[in-house]
Specification:
This protein has 6 helices and 11 strands. It has helices at residues 3-13, 20-71, 99-103, 110-113, 325-328, 357-364, and strands spanning 83-84, 91-92, 125-127, 130-132, 186-191, 230-231, 234-235, 266-270, 290-292, 338-343, 348-352. It has a 5-stranded mixed β-sheet, with helices on both faces.
């Protein structure tokens, strides 16, 4: 062996290598860096999803303004001037869809709107030239992809909300016979209703909301004005029966009805599809979700969340608040810290979970005529 070869062999044996301890330290450092980076990546993704959600709401706000310019008021939901059934089974009554259905022509979705026959009740399903009202069970449930109710409209969905965009295969108890219908993550605002008698659940919220200084606790609504557009068993067409921009019945406000100003009044807000049983009626339906300023912002009623008692909300175990109208008909989102709304002037804003409860109710009511600050 030459001298040079021996020196090379000794140098090779002295070449440093990673020890097990050093390798574990490197792995730990990489893990820490990933742990630090992952929340930032997730936050960036949520920021992008929230921006898209905000854009959807802006488009809805523009559609509302265009609808008002054409019709002199915002779109109603329901209508009793139609027929259920055909031929010998035809009879007056039934609903002809919700607010969002009527907005379709103003959202570049006129082709879908034109498939509906507003002569007939359409809350179950409606196909071109045929009503699936009273005679619904006689119609084969084949190829629902051709039903307009099945059409998923991206502008009605918030990308922050997980889950199916169409019912029919989801294991929920509010599927109304199993007919498919596409969903939405947005809801029109009905104000601050007095629900103590007409609807269950207002009393259950008492521990979680401030006591109103304006009305006795049993009245339900924060200012005492009536809400919902519902009286006894009749859907009302009177502005006197609702204090929001939209009613649960056959009425919606014009600009002249919004005494507090369009820039101070909610019109549309977030309400994820897995947080309210009303949202499972579908975007076309006259019973599609509405939101009211009763439950605090982001009050937990969503599937896979824990309610205020700590119970996990699932389709099989819906917990205390999921079935209660006053609780599930609130403003909520899948964004941290609050939810987004469209005001009646078409502008969009983020409403914090920490918003003052009275200010929140003032913004929901169109005619309380109480001043509102610029910060929510």
């Amino acid at each position: 062996m030459s001298l040079d070869t021996a020196s090379y062999d000794r140098a090779s044996r002295r070449r440093p290598a990673f020890t097990l301890v050093e390798l574990l330290v490197v792995i730990a450092i990489i893990g820490i860096l990933i742990a630090l980076l992952l929340p930032a990546v997730q936050a960036a993704r949520e920021a992008a999803r929230r921006a898209q959600c905000n854009n959807n709401l802006k488009q809805l706000g523009i559609a509302l303004q265009n609808y008002h310019d054409t019709n002199g008021r915002f779109p109603i939901r329901s209508n009793t001037n139609n027929v259920m059934g055909t031929g010998s089974t035809a009879s007056p009554g039934g609903d002809t869809g919700g607010n969002f259905l009527r907005l379709l022509p103003y959202m570049e979705q006129k082709a879908i709107y034109d498939q509906y026959n507003f002569t007939y009740a359409i809350n179950v399903s409606n196909v071109p030239g045929h009503s699936l009202g009273a005679e619904y069970q006689a119609v084969p449930h084949t190829d629902p992809r051709h039903w307009p109710n099945y059409t998923v409209i991206p502008g009605f969905l918030c990308p922050s909300v997980p889950g199916m965009a169409v019912t029919g295969t989801n294991p929920d108890a509010y599927n109304n016979g199993g007919s498919d219908r596409a969903l939405t993550d947005y809801a029109t605002c009905g104000g601050s209703p007095s629900c103590q008698i007409q609807w269950p659940g207002r009393g259950a919220l008492t521990p979680f909301v401030p006591v109103s200084p304006y009305v006795p606790p049993q009245w339900g609504g924060y200012f005492g004005e009536s809400g919902l557009g519902y009286s006894g068993d009749t859907w009302s067409s009177s502005a006197a029966n609702t204090n929001g921009v939209f009613a649960y019945g056959n009425w919606a406000a014009s600009f002249n009805d919004i005494l507090d100003g369009t820039s101070n009044t909610f019109a549309i807000g977030e309400q994820p599809r897995n947080c309210s049983p009303d949202q499972w009626s579908g975007w076309h339906n006259s019973h599609q979700g509405m939101f009211y300023a009763q439950a605090p912002v982001n009050f937990p009623t969503c599937m896979s969340e824990r309610d205020v008692t700590g119970n996990l909300i699932t389709w099989s175990t819906t917990g205390t608040f999921w079935p209660l109208f006053a609780a599930y008909s609130g403003l909520r989102s899948k964004h941290p810290g609050g939810a987004q709304v469209v005001f009646a002037d078409g502008s969009t804003h983020f409403i914090s979970e920490a918003v003052n409860y009275e200010i929140f109710n003032r913004l929901a009511v169109r005619n309380d005529q109480r001043t509102v600050g610029t910060e929510y």
